[in-house]
Amino acid sequence: MTADNRVYLFDTTLRDGAQTQGVDFSVADKTAIAIELDRIGIDYIEGGWPGANPTDDRFFAAPPAFNRARFVAFGMTRRAGRSAANDPGLNAILSTQARTVCMVGKTWDFHVDVALELGRTEYIDMIADSVAVARTRVDEVMFDAEHFFDGYKANRDYAMTCLREALRAGARWLVLCDTNGGTLPHDIERIVGEVCAEIPGTSIGIHCHNDTENAVANSLAAVRVGARQVQGTINGLGERCGNANMIALIPSLMLKMGYDTGIPAENLAKLTHLSRLLDDRLNLVPNRSAAYVGSRAFAHKGGLHVSAVEKDPRTYEHIDPAVVGNERIIVVSDQAGRSNVMARFRQIGLEIDPRSPDVMRLLEIVKEREANGYAYDGADASFELLARRELHTVPDYFVLQSFRVLAERRWNARGELITLSEATVKLDVAKHRVMEVGEGNGPVNALDSALRKALLPHYAELVDMRLIDFKVRILDSAGGTAAITRVMIESADGHGQRWTTIGVSPNIIDASYNALYDAITYKLFRDGATPAV
Amino acid sequence: MTADNRVYLFDTTLRDGAQTQGVDFSVADKTAIAIELDRIGIDYIEGGWPGANPTDDRFFAAPPAFNRARFVAFGMTRRAGRSAANDPGLNAILSTQARTVCMVGKTWDFHVDVALELGRTEYIDMIADSVAVARTRVDEVMFDAEHFFDGYKANRDYAMTCLREALRAGARWLVLCDTNGGTLPHDIERIVGEVCAEIPGTSIGIHCHNDTENAVANSLAAVRVGARQVQGTINGLGERCGNANMIALIPSLMLKMGYDTGIPAENLAKLTHLSRLLDDRLNLVPNRSAAYVGSRAFAHKGGLHVSAVEKDPRTYEHIDPAVVGNERIIVVSDQAGRSNVMARFRQIGLEIDPRSPDVMRLLEIVKEREANGYAYDGADASFELLARRELHTVPDYFVLQSFRVLAERRWNARGELITLSEATVKLDVAKHRVMEVGEGNGPVNALDSALRKALLPHYAELVDMRLIDFKVRILDSAGGTAAITRVMIESADGHGQRWTTIGVSPNIIDASYNALYDAITYKLFRDGATPAV
Fold first, then answer.
1. B116 pLDDT band (50/70/90 cuts)?
2. What distance lies between CA A449 and its chain's CA centroid?
3. Does the pLDDT value for residue A332 go beyond 50?
4. Domain boundaries, chain B
5. Cα torsion for A345, A347, A350, A353, to the nearest 10°?
6. Does the beta-carbon distance from A407 to B405 stay under 8 Å?
7. Distance from C-alpha of A249 to C-alpha of A254, rounded to nearest angstrom
8. Is the predicted pLDDT of residue B263 greater than 90, yes or no?
9. Which tens digit of pLDDT belongs to each residue from B457-469?
10. Residue A47, class by beta-carbon neighbours within 10 Å (0-12 exposed, 13-18 middle, 19+ buried)?
11. What is the mean pLDDT of residues A373-377?
12. Where is the Pyruvate carboxyltransferase domain (chains A, B) (predicted)?
């Protein structure tokens, strides 16, 4: 049992979120996201379904170490006609490092009859057996009561019997799932209230889908009448219309309803970052209108709203955007822009007088560049270089004269169709004209290779520098392949430093070169390299 | 007064929706959208704010003729220090063809004190005067009680006095607005219930914003306790996080709560079209996860889900998608089973015996390819080609021998640094070896151009084909520029058909070529082109 106002958060981004059409997590994605979920203070992190696909198997074979979160494996109850102890599927979910297991079973008689084509009593035995065996193998078993709300409406007794049997067999949590997402808040509130009254003292969870755009409201309604675990996903990722959006739920629970979610108040400011991290990982365009964390969630158009907000932000803001790590955007106000730029200067350790004309000039440059497709939000190193160049404090470490990149698909000597990439660069360094050629399995890789070959004799600092991420986004995509391309490159060195740079051009090779150039310049500048030009 | 279950719909897409950052309606947009809103059966269509900007003035000067809807002008109460009869702003909204006027006034004492800096009694007089004058000039006056919920919590008496004075002056509707969007459903329900009890017999409306992702739930809660007008926008367009989404509200009100919205049941099937029309007009990418109308709102990805849906769609669909004009999608992916593949075959019109070894072989190929970076769930055309190729029913329309793509940055004759892309292709078509060269502002664009030049003389079908979207995802990004690249290309033709193809390779140019090849092949195959090889 839990303190009355403690609500446990259960994130299923990596499991139910992976059901989203078009979404495909790599093991590296899962690891990066799980680490952030643990950092912010989520109670339970469901990593996937061991045994269901190779990605989940690899992730469960080597999950990250969590500071605080419990790692959860999802899976089904045993199959019909097998003992739970000898069921391979069940064994797969009980044999990982996850000490908590979330086991799903249907609680709608219609599903048992029509989809599973099993006897109802037989199916309840399958639930009870599976939970009982799981209870002997892991620390904590949750029962995900699939289709609970449809089941409760259709056959209340059957749905409740499923819950009671799972509880009797040792389930620590009973999670009521609105699997098809069609239940409205007033029905959720009534049914969860009745369940809580009927089996008092039981830990009840809620799992909602957004098929009527009510997943968040449904989750809040369930908590108000007694549910103490909420399942959801970052940004509401999930099959069909998605799951309950954890990013919107958390601040409402904490700031407006006074619940303790286990997340320290100061970690709320990480929500905006967490939301954008997921989109970055999946190469999705962030929803600008997202509640609390969207880039325009606190944007004010000109006129009356702006003048009121300048008098007192509470006139048009339901919370202080900084509390969730977001920021106010006042489109027409230079003051707001100036303070953003000043805040970023402070972050990178640049001392500058706020009244200096340099500040306004840089602001104009940033605005113009962002209008042309740059996004300095995610490219701190390029922003710092831009700012320092405006203040004339960044040397040119080399001067590119030209490059040429060739990608060729042809038949090789063994009759195989191969594609080769080769790049030549011509640049001036240490008073010499240097030409080098490199190859790679893609044009950008080849260009990177040629640049290093040309520069390494003059800049030993580059020896341990490597590219660790490379992202491409097409802007103004209505233009097809003629669109503007934005490339972001993340680099790292042997000291554990990481930095991100950006390049924008109609030509993807050109954009990549610009980002590579900034990446190399930033490394040399931070290491205090002596310009060899 | 209205029948107890009649809920009036008030669309403010063209007024509050126009506050969205980045949204800019033309007069033609407004006309087209208003006509559709009238056709579907919306009661009130708010066209804008006459006198506030040139677009709204032109739209109100020549609005479309409505069959059924009432046309509404929005505006503010008179200014301080002027008589209502002589206020130019008020006159502007009372002088149009709109016979209904929606007049906004603040009902939060804090706003009157801090933002307006007016006396509270003085401001109430402004509301009452303005409503009274309007009542003499138009048929129907609504009072939009701005910031009502914040106002009610802060100073209940003041907020209620504003309502009573507007009512006494002749307002036909009192619309309670959650202007800052921060109120949660349980508070909306309590407060609207109290207002309805306190001034019984009054027509109450609700106007919600989505700042906590609860605008739809808030609107439904208000209706349940007595509100009989709902204000919202198509797709939830609107400032910050948007307004209540009419597209999600309507089917819940009609199908799940039994209200009469004035929309004939058969017109519900126009909702998906209405939603996409707005996005098309504004050049926005439709939200695939939108409740009821999103392209993946009825998409099924998991193998178990698909087999159940094939037995009875109610197992995983909360409503029949056809009722709202949407459709079921069966997704093929590495999470899919045999039943997904079979269902997709049926959708593309392929007759195949489910026990045929071809089915399992294709499933194995899909799984293997997805493990290597392919993602067929977003690339229907490439999946269809893959399946048909396995069944040997897709001809080769041409055979590529080789291509070469060059991207070069150099100084041009005028001393400018430029980047050029050029591609050559060598291919066999119609028993001839063809070589062509094309250029473009990026290597993929150049390659596309060369391919078309080579093929168009032989395949006139390609004349109206164009690339409309180009997406790049780097997989296994821990490898930096050496990572695997996935390219997805969306193409369209002059018949309004759209299709998506995929290419995967360590080399981005190679991946792009593969996706281009599928795009061209799919177009020729669907059009029944005669292979000219």
1. confident
2. 31
3. no
4. 8-282, 299-371, 399-526
5. 50
6. yes
7. 9
8. yes
9. 999 999 989 887 7
10. buried
11. 72
12. 7-269
Contact B384, B525 (CB under 8 A): no
B1 has a pLDDT exceeding 60:
no
DSSP category for residue B214: -
B470–A236 C-beta distance less than 8 A? no
Q: What span, in angstroms and rounded, lies between the C-alpha atoms of B255 and B319? A: 9
Output the CATH code of domain A299-390. 4.10.430.20
| Look-up of token digits 């998906």 | B272
Rounded Cα gap, residues B170 and A511, in angstroms: 62
Q: State residue B154 phi and psi, 5-degree precision.
A: -80, -45
B508 strand-pairing partners: none
Report the CATH number of the A399-526 domain. Answer: 3.30.160.270
Q: What is the DSSP letter of A331?
A: T
**Model ipTM value:** 0.76
Mean pLDDT of A323-327: 93
Q: What is the DSSP string of A51-104?
A: TT-HHHHHHHHSPPPPSSPEEEEEEEPPPTTS-GGG-HHHHHHHSSS-SEEEEE
Q: Please give the angle made by the CA atoms of A481, A482 and A487, to the nearest 5 degrees.
A: 75
Q: Is the pLDDT of residue A257 over 80?
A: yes
Chain B residue nearest residue A249, CA to CA: B212
Of the candidates A304, A404, A508, the beta carbon closest to that of B408 is on A404
**Which residue, chain included where needed, has tokens 């940004």?**
A235
Tell me which residue of A305, A372, A306, A368 sits closest to A336, measured CA to CA. Answer: A306
Does pLDDT of A533 surpass 70? no
- Look up residue B112 and give its amino acid: V
For the segment A131-140, the average pLDDT, to the nearest whole number, is 97
Residue-wise pLDDT for B332-355, tens only, equals 665 556 677 777 777 777 777 877
Q: Quick one: fold of B8-282? A: TIM Barrel (3.20.20)
Q: Is A21 within 8 Å of B377 when comparing Cβ atoms?
A: yes
In words, the CATH class of domain A8-263 is: alpha beta
